[in-house]
């Protein structure tokens, strides 16, 4: 819808104030995952190296899997991806004459699964590295409005003086996932190619969804009020689960998530949580997400689990955590006997 495109252009300009020297435009996508798919289709060739965080959103992995890329997974600390490590890894690849990546995928606010928020200085360092090593940044930011730090942090798009950022926005996490309301902001030459692909793939996104999204974005005051309420709602749920998790801290340490919807726990004494998740926990009626889900190689051992606080009822949190404590202790005892995986892999 032309009216929606016009409104989103104004919205992006007001929200991010991207540098004016780069010609860029907006494209409506059928949800954020569709935007990820379009970027991968445009930029990735079979066997290409691609930069992600060490643990990354499973949707980027599923999209890239047909291309069998080389994943350059950069570790995170409590403040997200570590730029110095990224610089060292890329510098070493350059010295060795290895193929250099064309693309980085990153969720700077509420990284899924770790819940980290990249501070401004790290964002600027990562953008500088993109310029130095000549790669594009896919800035996937669906949790932008679920930032619990109360610190406004400039987006990578707002720093993009060279046309290296493709930004993906979505209302799935704060309005309705089923609406599939999302949009991409990118340098015009790249966006034109993606638009041609979109036309061939699905002609255009659902017109009814676009009309609803237009009304949402057009009413800025109402939208802002809703976004603040959504942030407060999920922050209260995060704080409630954090309080409930006190008995787990010595068994599975974690950092308080600064944004998003997840806690990321490292289970002490368990090198691989696969059996714990799909046998011990499942048999006790507790559903956990194993860290393997956020690795490109899903068969690799992993000591992490992800917990989600978006749906669990507040009154069920203490019981669920008590159950989790028993599961972890049982698995720690079993691990001492060095068992093999017995769960069926799917």
TrEMBL record:
Coiled coil: none
CDD domains: AAT_like
Pfam families associated with the record: Aminotran_1_2
GO biological processes: alpha-amino acid metabolic process
Keywords: Aminotransferase, Pyridoxal phosphate, Transferase
InterPro entries: Aminotransferase_I/II_large, Class-I_PLP-dep_aminotransf, PyrdxlP-dep_Trfase, PyrdxlP-dep_Trfase_major
GO molecular function terms listed in the Swiss-Prot or TrEMBL record: kynurenine-oxoglutarate transaminase activity; pyridoxal phosphate binding
Domain Aminotransferase class I/classII large per the UniProt entry, residue ranges: 2-323
Cofactor(s) needed: pyridoxal 5'-phosphate
Record protein name field: SFRICE_034847
The species this protein was found in: Spodoptera frugiperda (Fall armyworm)
Organismal lineage: Eukaryota, Metazoa, Ecdysozoa, Arthropoda, Hexapoda
């Amino acid at each position: 819808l032309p009216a929606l495109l016009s409104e989103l252009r104004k919205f992006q300009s007001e929200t991010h104030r991207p540098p004016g020297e780069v010609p860029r435009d907006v494209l409506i996508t059928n949800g954020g995952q569709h935007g990820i798919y379009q970027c991968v289709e445009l930029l990735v060739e079979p066997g290409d190296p691609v930069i992600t965080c060490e643990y990354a959103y499973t949707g980027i992995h599923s999209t890239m899997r047909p291309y069998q890329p080389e994943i350059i997974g950069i570790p995170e600390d409590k403040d997200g991806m570590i730029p110095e490590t990224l610089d060292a890894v890329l510098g070493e690849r350059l010295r060795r004459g290895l193929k250099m990546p064309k693309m980085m995928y990153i969720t700077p606010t509420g990284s899924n699964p770790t819940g980290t928020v990249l501070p401004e200085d790290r964002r600027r360092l990562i953008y500088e590295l993109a310029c130095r090593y000549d790669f594009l940044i896919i800035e996937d930011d669906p949790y932008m409005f679920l930032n619990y730090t109360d610190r406004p942090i400039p987006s990578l798009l707002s720093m993009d003086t060279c046309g290296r950022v493709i930004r993906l926005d979505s209302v799935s996490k704060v309005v309705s996932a089923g609406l599939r309301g999302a949009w991409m902001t990118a340098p015009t030459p790249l966006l034109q190619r993606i638009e041609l692909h979109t036309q061939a793939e699905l002609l255009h996104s659902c017109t009814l969804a676009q009309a609803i999204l237009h009304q949402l974005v057009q009413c800025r005051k109402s939208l802002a009020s809703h976004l603040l309420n959504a942030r407060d709602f999920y922050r209260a749920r995060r704080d409630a689960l954090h309080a409930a998790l006190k008995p787990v801290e010595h068994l599975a340490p974690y950092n308080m998530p600064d944004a998003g919807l997840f806690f990321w726990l490292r289970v002490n004494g368990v090198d691989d949580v696969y059996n714990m998740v799909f046998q011990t926990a499942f048999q006790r009626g507790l559903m956990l997400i194993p860290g393997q889900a956020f690795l490109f190689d899903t068969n690799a051992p992993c000591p992490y689990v992800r917990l989600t606080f978006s749906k669990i009822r507040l009154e069920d949190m203490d019981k669920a955590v008590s159950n989790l404590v028993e599961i972890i202790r049982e698995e720690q005892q079993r691990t001492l006997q060095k068992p093999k995986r017995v769960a069926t892999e799917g």
